[in-house]
């Protein structure tokens, strides 16, 4: 009965526009992947961590994470895959027979708190076999088609602005029912393995962007627990600034 955390850090982070992988970008002199690993370890409920890293960078990532004395739990590093889903599968392959709970966490969410990690693991240990943190959304969300559209006929008077990209709306889900989901996501290991096995054998248009989606595809129940602002995902330079603010706040 141990908990293993798979920390996905194999993305390139091209939207940040740096020449190093996003997980190695530093805030306050500490790489994002180390910030995330420290909080997983500080939760007291994670027994080991597997970091998925960009292929070829295993020794670099091992240097920055495994040698951080503050992490304090065993950290292994494995080459990730071409997609996040493949990276998680590579990490999952390293789970041991005693690991009955698996957390999957994005290094791109460096300030997800130890309290959030504990909340997710508690919910799994309480019998929820698939648990995701989520927060209510403030915007109204619409589903649109991404089909190629013929350029809209230019009404007179559009001037030099060119054609506006106009995506047809399909539907508007009830906002009160929506949650923006975060990581760490927590699972019963057997269920997550079954979900990944099934996904690997299924032809899909797009790879999964989270693991709970794979569990839902099995028709199994997934529950949402309260997420937090600090678990925001760092994608752009603006997010780095915001994440830094959260980090400073948390240290006060
Ligand atoms: O690209 P995105 O921001 O959705 O990535 C989410 C997380 O998945 C990041 O922590 C990233 O490092 C990780 N990832 C991965 N392997 C990939 C792509 C993304 O581990 N091939």
Automatic annotation (TrEMBL):
Belongs to the IspD/TarI cytidylyltransferase family. IspD subfamily. This is 2-C-methyl-D-erythritol 4-phosphate cytidylyltransferase. The record marks 15, 22 as: Transition state stabilizer. GO terms for biological process: isopentenyl diphosphate biosynthetic process, methylerythritol 4-phosphate pathway. Its EC number is 2.7.7.60. InterPro entries: IspD, IspD/TarI, IspD/TarI_cytidylyltransf_bact, ISPD_synthase_CS, Nucleotide-diphossugar_trans. The record marks 175, 233 as: Positions MEP for the nucleophilic attack. It comes from the Bacteria. Signal peptide: none annotated. Keywords: Isoprene biosynthesis, Nucleotidyltransferase, Transferase.
